[in-house]
Amino acid sequence: MTPRSGADDGAKDRAARRAVTLFPLLVLAAGALGLATPSLFAGWTGGVPYLLGCVMFCMGLTMTPLDFQGVVKRPWAVALGLVAHYVIMPGLGWLVAHALSLPPALAAGVILVGCAPSGTASNVVTYLARGDVALSVSVATVSTVLAPLITPPLTLLLAGEYLPVDAGAMVGDILRTVLLPVIAGVLVRLVAGRYVDRVLPAMPWLSSLAIAAIVAAVVSGSADAIKSAALTVILAVVLHNGLGLALGYGAGRLFGLGAPASRAMSFEVGMQNSGLAASLATAHFSPMAALPAAVFSVWHNVSGALVAAWMAHRARRTDALEAAASADRTAPAA
Fold it and tell me: In DSSP terms, which residues pair with 118 in a beta bridge?
């Protein structure tokens, strides 16, 4: 590796750490503002789908054909990640809702978070954890593209016992707010890539601002309910996310993926597109049902950053031990 490439990697690492650190703080501040001054965000709920569309358009702008080639190169690993994501998190959402005896609106909201595709920050956190970024990007891409076909029926199956679920209308919403903006972003990148490259560094921050606005709108819409249910929702989110991270890593190891790929699996399973869940819950259930998604938006970035730091430390330690062992084997006898 040349000094220049090392400097580039260092700059990329610092930028990733800065984004992962500041993003949850920004979202937390937006949630606190929505809770303290709900009247300030009155009427914002109707704009949530458009804000989500902005997030997904930014995601599409960051995609290249290489993201889709990864699916063809390693179909088994991507398929495993996809199945793990859409089995583990929806199942955990249902189990957590039952174990905590959540009220119907909160239970439906937790399950809906579990049925959402991979989180938009999972790739960055995988990079920080020294995981398999290519696999992470491939799984996130496929889970997002397939969300219109998978999220609505899963939500109907698991959350239908709590609240009525219009799966058909939900499909239309996901197509409009997720798939079409992503496709539009990809097409703009293909047509005007030279100009898009100049603004790519701003895309994560634009997405962060849009998600923060979604959280502020959701929290302000159920400010009174939050004060009575906050601890329950936080417990449900922490359990849901923590078990998802652990089981995602375990699934990778169980099916023979290496450590870097298993680290990617951890974040692709445990981190969700909570902005989509908040938008769908607001449109199809109630602001109260969107509360778990708002809390998840903050927590999964905090927990993801912490777990990534721990995984990176263990990976560096393992590499150092292996290097020392290799040096001992190759050293000439005294």
Answer: 272
